[in-house]
């Protein structure tokens, strides 16, 4: 629809609203007021658009939000129906186990509290005592979904960190350590040891020169006269 068609539809909606206001039973028509508000919104939307623009519901953010909300509500209703069917099937199963006196040998599953409510509704509002006792015993014994999760396993001792920066092991070799790498050549018989680097001599650490011994001949008067 272009701006001209929207303006014509807005005039019709305003005319209908004036006509309905004359009758007491139509004065509170919520649907008519909603349609009038929607046509007014579309008229303002096209008035702000460039000349010759055509209304496109796919580009209308308000319409897209409403469609997304409707899709989410439909998904919630579908999920609720699936859950109700699951609860009803589980209630039938527990009812059959009660009649066979085999309820105590059954492990409770997640969601059995809702199944208890379903059985209570079927019993006319009275909670079955055997179902309550079964759930209470399972909770006390940590059976089924009431069981505590297993504790997390600690990392192996060889992979614990020596410090916050230097790990004792690597992902490829859990038992690797710098000490084992430095002595790994000893485990290969016949292989020569690594050549050590020559020590670096600093001027401060170099030996001092030997002191000169004075020649007694230079101290004689004869040597001086010669």
- Percent helix among the residues? 40-55%
Distance between the termini: 133 Å
Extended strand count: 0
Number of helices: 7
- Class by SSE composition: mainly alpha
Core attributes:
226 residues, mainly alpha, 7 helices
Please provide a written account of the structure:
With 226 residues, the chain is mostly helical. Helix content is 49%, strand content 0%. The chain has seven helices and no strands. The chain has helices spanning 3-20, 30-48, 61-99, 112-122, 129-141, 178-182, 221-225. α1 runs antiparallel to α2 (30-48) and α3 (61-99) packs across α4 (112-122). The chain is elongated, with a radius of gyration of 47 Å. It starts with a helix and ends with a helix.
The gist of it:
The chain has seven helices and no strands.
Q: What is the secondary structure topology, with strand pairs?
A:
Blueprint (H helix, E strand, L loop, with lengths): L2 H18 L9 H19 L12 H39 L12 H11 L6 H13 L36 H5 L38 H5 L1
